[in-house]
Protein 1
Amino acid sequence: MHNNTNSGWKGLVIPLTILILWFFLGAFGRLNTQLFPTCGEVWEALCYLTQQGLLWHHVANSLSRVFTGFGLAILVGVPLGLLMGCVPQSHLWFGPTLHFLRQIPPTAWIPVFLLWFGIGEGPKFAVIFYAAVFPIAINSALGVQQIPKEYWEVSKALCLTPLKTLTTLVIPGSYHAVFTGLRLGMGMSWRAIVAAEMLASTNGLGYLVMSSRSLARVDEMFAGIVFIGLIGMLIDMAFVTVQNHLIPSWKWRVSKAGGEDLVSTPTPVTTSFQKI
Amino acid sequence: MSAPLLQLQQVSKRFNDGDERGNVVALRDISLTVHEGEFVSVLGPSGCGKSTLLRIIAGLTAPTTGQCLYKGQPVNKPSLERGYVFQDPRLFPWLTVLENINLAGAGANGEELLNKMDLAEFGQALPHELSGGMARRVALARALAPQPHLLLLDEPLANLDVPLRQNLQAELQRIWEQQGVTCILVTHNIDEALALGTRLILLSKRPAIIRYDLALDMSFPRKIHQAQVAALKTQILEWMEVH
């Protein structure tokens, strides 16, 4: 592990270089401002949108949609994932289906959802739900499967009821992975909502970007895009902070027969889709 | 003589190809009767199938052929009457010591067990804060909490330092004497088997069959250099070499 306390500046090198390059290209008039606005123009657009209260209006709309859809995805995805994880050989049972469904981009469903749920908020919730539910369910399932079989045997030997096994083994043993799933799911739904708002909406950040296109306001377009990235990043950072500070991590302590104690921390599942 | 607590009738266990162990015969025709109050030491070389035997008695594994009767009833699933102490403590890392002990829900006597095990101050500690010896004692307490009639001990003293081992050995003996719980101890350590058992069963290499079944009638506490114990140890070592 690298010591990250004083290396935060490294991550800023590339964005700052791009910003400086962008600034000077604009300052020397080397940008075709019909296609690519200058730094200053984007900044002014941001200020204008903020002053008018438009930016917050769009942000608030996008966020409330994301959190509603995301909440639904948690309600369905976590129990479903935990259940899948408890089924022996669950990857054989559920793997192909999940593989198929998660290959379909949530945006491909938009026309279908529009047909099913009308043109209100319904299809947007559905898109977010669809984007988030797979990473959440898959990681929850993997989290349960990561619990060493030795602990399952303890629960068997102690004749724990299914409910007690759930509360004392399945949930605490998997919630790191569940949280990783939530974080991935959140990222997916943020990306999906913007796409959904581009297609059928009258507000939200996706709508802001799309409507600026029809008004040929390339500066507002960029302002919207930058803001989408920033908010997505902030949400993700919030998740990481919660995961690192509020969720205790423990060490599995299982000794193999005749060997020394193997002490390991469960690895977070970040790119785990391939496994299931 | 009282009715048998446990009867194994020609129990065999074969692991089939699906298992990582391949098609292996772990136990062959094991017949064994255990009466209430006995402390049976099952001695055998590492990997001979001793643990499998214990797991069958516990109801964690089904025998391939033969059957296991507990109080006359066939064993087909675990029961709180048969406490199991695993070789490694296997404490749930997210539960405190007390919560681990009370896991089976028998409740109430968790505190009492903590006191008995000299762990009174550690009730609220998490397992990773415990030393190896303490974790074993907690695992023992967890198995004792539901007040089992039969305690199955799967090498509970393996991989411990000598002082800790002796300490825990004394603990086990005290529990057996004071609580009247019947014990089956599986081990590959002769000294341990001789120090604790009222009866010693010697298993062969895999597939395990019972080679010898002898009563140990020396008084407790036993010292390994007592003439009778030492002679028995030499004899058993010879037997183990032959087979």
Note: The interface with chain B takes residues 150-151, 153-154, 156-160, 164, 168-169, 172-173, 248, 250-261 of chain A (CB under 8 Å).
Protein 2
Amino acid sequence: MIATFTVVVFLLAAFRLYIILPLSRTLKPRTASHSISTRRLAIFLGSGGHTAEALALLSTLDFSRYTPRTYIISEGDILSSQKAVALEASRAISHPKSNNDNFTILIIPRARGVHQSILTTPPTALLSLLTCIYYVTVAPILYSNESNSDFADLLILNGPGTCFVLCLAVYINKFAGLRTPSLIYIESFARVKKLSLSGRLLRPLVDKFIVQWPQLLQDRGRGECHGLLV
Amino acid sequence: MRAFVTVGSTKFDALVNSVFSEAVILSLSQRGYTKLVVQCGNSTFEFADFVANGESQVLEKEGVEVEYWKFKPSLQEEFDKADLVISHAGSGTILDVLRLPKPLIVVPNPTLLDNHQEELATSLGDLGHLKATTAVLCRDLAKTIETFDVSTIVPFPPFDGSKFARIVDEEMGFI
């Protein structure tokens, strides 16, 4: 009896997962109504070169369209938050009429520290996941009566590790049928012949998978290349 | 003429030891360089003790004035002043220098576990945007400096923000 129940639950879960995976999708994901003229954007700043590329990409967007903006930063990565604030400040000067001051910075614990032992990784990764779930799933439900309560319409990711945890949190929303952001992953310009670990993990999960070197798509897997973007 | 060497935020013993070698200094002097500036980071080399506390030191070797120090908050000014940049293969540094543009010799750090730095350097080298070489043998770096013909550099494409903006606008239903 219990075994049958488990099998049925498992099959239903697998079917649900199959439906929400972008590979099998024929319809556009559920995003905000296209009648409104702005989209809420969230972007993960993965420190160092990841942050530099992410902000270079973000700087190309029309901030009056993509507003408000949420910068997601790993705990202790002060440099990335300074750079995000600097970009916002420079936009406020160059485009004084667009939606300024319309950004927030979210801090999430690192899934795994740089020299962290493999043994202590599971608890820290779990804490990281729970924080992401809070921001992506729980907070929007708790504050659903306020306008702009959703996490974001668009989530831009470019690695490293912690961005996979964010993606998992988004999938919990997808699984539950809650509104989810479109996911765009951009592989670093530094990756020429081999995808990064986060690239390989996120490739089947994101709505748009972009690489900057065409060699990376020679395996005929999913993804697109528009040449250099940074 | 002025050359600038950077090892990035950590250390790169092989590169720093190479640039202080007679072979490399001679090759620079031969090509008309009279000033060499070295950002040595935490690398271990003959003169490392003199800059251990953040000092800047100068010495003279084979008619080349060599200035060296560990770190500066921004290297932009050094890139601007240099006629040649010799750098580790960090993607940020590569972009900064190629966009200026300045002639660039890239030396991937073989001690880094992930060898994607080398991939990037070699690929950009194959496209003619820079010269990629190794620092394990001082001869290689010296030879690259001696034979680097700046007129053969293929210009690196400028930053084109419209491409990514279009991709995102399309995905989000603006186009």
Note: The radius of gyration of chain A is 18 Å.
